Amino acid sequence: MGVLSQMNVKKTLLLAACLASAGLVVAEPSTNVAWTVETYRMVRHGDPEIGAKLEGVETEDVNACTDCHGKGGAEPDRDKHPTLAGQNAAYVFKQLRDYKDGKRENRRMEEAVERLSDEQLTSLAAWYAMQPLPKVETDPDDKVSPETLELVFRGDKKRLIQPCASCHGENGQGAKIDVPSIAGQNVKYFVETMKDYAKDKRTNDVYSRMRIIAKELTRDEVNELAVYYARLPEQPRSSNLLQALFD
Length: 247
Prior knowledge:
Elements (H helix, E strand, L loop, with lengths): L2 H19 L15 H8 L3 H7 L10 H5 L19 H13 L5 H7 L4 H12 L16 H8 L10 H5 L18 H12 L10 H8 L2 H13 L5 H10 L1
Helix pairs in contact: 3-7, 5-6, 5-7, 8-13, 10-11, 10-12
């Protein structure tokens, strides 16, 4: 190590010591997953056949994935667990790693993944990603207002809320890295997740993106967004976009 490098290390240690003595804590990263070329390539090569076998494995300490999420992640138990069918593989891998690393808290999930390798996690992610989106039952009396559609496609500049579609896509399909598909998600799980973000009970969103937005949304807005995305796989996209733009 060169002289300059040694000086930089000493300065870093001194700064950390000063912050600690002043009672200042440097925030830890929200996730340990770094989207390098190698990481993305590993996720792309996940083996769905292995994932299909893993989701049914049960031990004395850990329930099978199917016990809570249903076969292929399509029939979650009592709506309190997320639909995994059709979810982006990269997102599923990140969440599983976050559970394993303690970046996302849930005792049952932490126990379920603590012994799994990254290759096994990517295989589960690949299996769920290839499953078709299920039809989610919603209350036919639940309505989605034009104002909520404005949030989906235009956001709210006054509250600095970006359009949902700008990250999650016009069809709620998410993005290849870090952004989940939310089309066909259970209403109850969607709502509870947004509450957790708003209360800082869930903190593994990079740059606090979802926490910032969730804190600005009203309860009615969250409920209507949940209904909108739950129904999205079965409703015409073009009419939604036209309604949002011209109502």
